[in-house]
């Protein structure tokens, strides 16, 4: 019996533990953060009491189920679009876990209450697969585009451009960084995957129109190609 216990203990020690991933701040508004997606990872999510955290998955990914370890002290609600959810902690909520199953992936979270430095929105960014890279490389680049900006002056970027393959956007340091959307194939707005690199918000593709939202403010950037 003692030998079996020792063997089980050794097997447990030899079993690799899942990677634990914290959200990362960009160079813009620290409240807008990202998770770098990895299979078999646990994502640690701090939620400030009295606030919710929006968690955005890949555009078009559909949430199928959400399981909370403590559903009395915590709330998790999917958006109507299905690729985003909102997590809120009750007063004195204990640490717990959460599993989110979508039509593509399964995500495991460790939830805890944080104060002062908890994010307001976390967006997942995904590594490009080999096939994605090959498909992108096979496409001829578009002509460089310019953009017509309309909407709230407080939210307008000070710079937006693309090289036919990649879009770069810059906001002033004092401006809040908005959530970025584009229309999906069904005409609905979907969160755009992008990363903050050297002060620029970079999207590794080109859209005919982008929508920026922050609170009730909204800005659109419609792409056009200048005639030579």
Report on the architecture of this protein.
The chain is mainly β. The chain has 2 domains: 20-125, Immunoglobulin-like (Sandwich), CATH 2.60.40; 133-224, Immunoglobulin-like (Sandwich), CATH 2.60.40. Helices cover 10% and strands 46% of the residues. It has helices spanning 2-14, 130-138, and strands at residues 19-22, 24-25, 32-36, 41-48, 52-56, 63-68, 74-78, 84-89, 96-102, 106-114, 121-125, 146-151, 159-162, 167-170, 179-183, 189-191, 195-197, 200-203, 209-214, 217-224. It has a 6-stranded mixed sheet with strand order 2-3-11-5-8-7, with no helix packed on it. The chain has a 5-stranded mixed sheet with strand order 1-4-10-9-6, with no helix packed on it. A 5-stranded antiparallel sheet has the order 12-20-19-15-16, with no helix packed on it. The longest helix has 13 residues, at 2-14. The radius of gyration is 20 Å and the shape is globular. It starts with a helix and ends with a strand.
